[in-house]
């Protein structure tokens, strides 16, 4: 008996640039399906991008430029980009860049190996921007392929880098990791807990799904504003009345990734870490503590608690995400350098890129010219 004949009907390949919230909502199901197939991080999920776009301030200075690669009615590639106007220059960057620690394209694992470069070429040809700046690229980010002369157009490595610290090892239990710390590190942890326990009942816990998140998020924003003011910084994520943090946290919760750890002293939150768990890794998105208890280092105590909690449940890595803060470095067993790339389109963009390069060369020259500080006497 003859086997049935299967006709291979080629799909229609096409590209698109999404520029409106309406279209973003329409393609969300196809994008979510691609995200599942590609094993993307939450920063590349359509709900994350949509939540950011709904709540981002200064939207009049921004525009969506989300590139899509279609294979028939199946979405095979996404480069989620947006522009932000600075001093008259339209800078093309990752959508939700300010709240996304790792940037990359999203490509189906069984798609054309050249899908990313072809999609980027289409986005580039459509224009709508002057300068390109894509940062926070992990070493294995797929968009690194765009730096190859045959693939990338107008893109080159940029001098700006960031650092990401992790805790990773073969520990089977959290207590095993704890014992690898220095004697001073273990003493500081115990001393901090003892100091707080002298004031009341101290409890570390993972927030239940049924627990209301709003009071915790308000507490996080309040404590973060205190920290930012003390260090002369600002972030729209924690502005009074800002909906951004709640919107992004809701996305994590809806995807089943959210893990909020709190350290409570007599039911008063003295430290919080808003984390998410993905691909066997605990990722620390937002952490903060009450400066009233700074002497006891509640943030450090909470961090050591959730690290042990994570290893107890079989997770392989704790990722502190972007930022080279000293408290991350002291506990990390690994560090990853995040690179960036830049490019330009049109005369205005090339002039802006040239000005940036000249500024960088000038700063590097002045740094080399500065005399080295002499080591103090013993």
TrEMBL record:
InterPro entries documented for this protein: Acyl_CoA_acyltransferase (IPR016181), BioF2-like_GNAT_dom (IPR038740)
Domain BioF2-like acetyltransferase residues, every copy: 183-329
Domain of life: Bacteria
Designated name of the protein: GNAT family N-acetyltransferase
Natural source organism: Mesorhizobium australafricanum
